[in-house]
Every structure is written in C-alpha cells, then in structure tokens.
Amino acid sequence: MNVDCPDLNCQTCFFVGRNNKKKFPTPEQVEGIEIAMACKLLIRSKNPRFWVIENPTAMMRHILGLPTVTTFFASWEDNTHKKPTDLWGKLPPMTWPQPKNWIPSPRGSKHPDTEITIPYGLSLALCIAIENEMSGQKPPLTLEGFAQTMTEV
Q1: How many domains does the chain have?
Q2: Cβ within 8 Å of residue 132, ≥6 positions away
Q3: CA dihedral 125, 126, 129, 134 (to 10 degrees)
Q4: How many CA atoms lie within 13 A of 118 on its CB side?
Q5: What is the pLDDT of residue 66?
Q6: DSSP structure class, residue 139
C-alpha cells in the first residue's frame, strides 16, 4: 500500500500551525502512520537480509527515526527536481552519487510526474547491489553488465 507523501509532511502533521493553533493528524495521516509502523514491525519480525523504505525528507523521520541514507532524485536522473529522499533499511554496499543537474523548484511545490515514482536509476542500482551481495560476484556487476545479462535471459 502506498501512502501519499502530502499526507506525511511536516507542515500537516502534529505541529503547531499558523497562529499557534495546534494541528491534529487527519484520518489519512493516521492511516499512513499506522502503515509505516506495521511495516516496521513486519520487517523486524521477518528480519530480511535487505530491505528499504523510501520517503521524501519530511515527517517519516519522526515516525521511523533518522534514515540510513539520504539521496536525491537528481543523483539518479537528469533534468529532474533535486528532491531529497530518505531511505531506511538494510542496504547493500553501494556508491551514492552526487546530484546531477536539476530543475530548481520552490519548497513545497508539487510535481505530479515525480510524486510517487522512485527514479529507475536508483531502483536498478539497488537491485544490482543486492544481486552482487547475494551472489558474491566479483567484480561487482555494473549497469551495463546487468543489461547484458538480461538480454541473454
């Protein structure tokens, strides 16, 4: 199940809002928090070798604690918004590139094209790093090597 990022952002959950009026979570936010906590319990009970939860840098830090790593969408795709995103989990050893060129965007702006999509490059890099760790392959499989392997299948 996917929880929309706007439901779990720092401006809409738990905090004192404008005019010092306390805000309370909406039913959608409560559901999102419950889902995040259920995921955390399930992961703890199953103890998988690798796992990852992704959420743009915001409210989830208050629910899951500090992330394992923070990366940027612009590190994995060209011509996208910088969009810092947090990853929690047991991640394989891998290189975390610096952001490439990105399109500036004002804080809190909406980008329907990237709202709930993890960059393909990030997903593929995680997949390859996990495959390398699980197979013990040396030297590490690269994106090009992975593409070649997939065409042979």
Answers
A1: 1
A2: 92, 140, 141
A3: -150
A4: 16
A5: 93
A6: S
In whole angstroms, how far apart are CA 13 and each of 7, 22, 28, 36, 110?
8, 10, 11, 14, 18
Helices assigned H by DSSP within 52-136: 60-64, 120-135
Contact 73, 101 (CB under 8 A): no
Token digits of residue 74:
């612009």
Q: The pTM is what?
A: 0.71
Contacts of 31 (CB under 8 A, 6+ apart): 3, 7
Tokens of 2: 């996917």
Q: 79 is in which domain, residue-wise? A: 5-152
The token duo for 53 is 């939860």
Closest by CA to 116, choosing from 50, 68, 55, 33, is 55
Which residue stretches of the chain have pLDDT < 50?
Answer: 1-2, 16, 146, 148-153
Residue 60 contacts residue 86 (beta carbons within 8 Å)? yes
